[in-house]
Amino acid sequence: MFTNISWGNYIIAVSILLLIWYLILGFRCYYPDLRAILSGEKSLQSLSLKSNPEKKLAVHLQKGSSVENKELHSYKESFDTLADAEELSGRIQGAIKESAERNLSLEEFQNYLKLLLSEYPFVRISTLRENINAIIVKSSASYPALLLTLSQVDVLWEESI
Question: Which runs of E-coded beta strand occur in the chain?
């Protein structure tokens, strides 16, 4: 059909088009990195795949980026399970009193507790979980309509995922 175009010209044209296509994709995906390299904020060595991840973390922390520092701060806070457990125990006791005042059914009360427990995922995987369970059982014993056992509370943790 196209007898005027040779295979060599066709391969060159397709190669040039592919090169342009991949350059466009590269600029769209890696523009922030390329801009950081050209402005001198990053070096090519910091982008290498063979570098140690701990060194990369140290380099990022030395940069002093406020966003990264906020992320690191929130990461450290997420493992502060003792403070989380204390806060959770206070919220649970308040929730039990509120549920008794509102005359919630046992199912509604359990759903309320699931919601509270889902807000503290690090307490769920810590050893403080047993203490929280004991607090829930002890506090709910004051209200016969909201009485829970340890096994029921443990199931609440699993369902709150």
Answer: none
Other CB atoms within 10 A of residue 124 CB: 17
pLDDT mean across residues, the chain? 80
Residue with tokens 């982008």, as numbered in its chain: 47
For the whole model, what pTM was predicted? Answer: 0.50
pLDDT per residue as tens digits for the range 24-70: 998 898 888 888 888 887 776 655 545 555 555 555 555 555 555 55
Tell me the two tokens of residue 21.
């296509």
159 vs 156, residue with greater confidence: 156
User: Do residues 83 and 90 lie in contact, with contact meaning Cβ atoms separated by under 8 Å?
Assistant: no
Q: How far is CA 136 from CA 30, 115, 123, 124, 155, in A?
A: 51, 14, 14, 14, 13
Nearest partner of 117 among 109, 40, 64, judged by Cα: 109
In the DSSP assignment, the letter for residue 18 is H
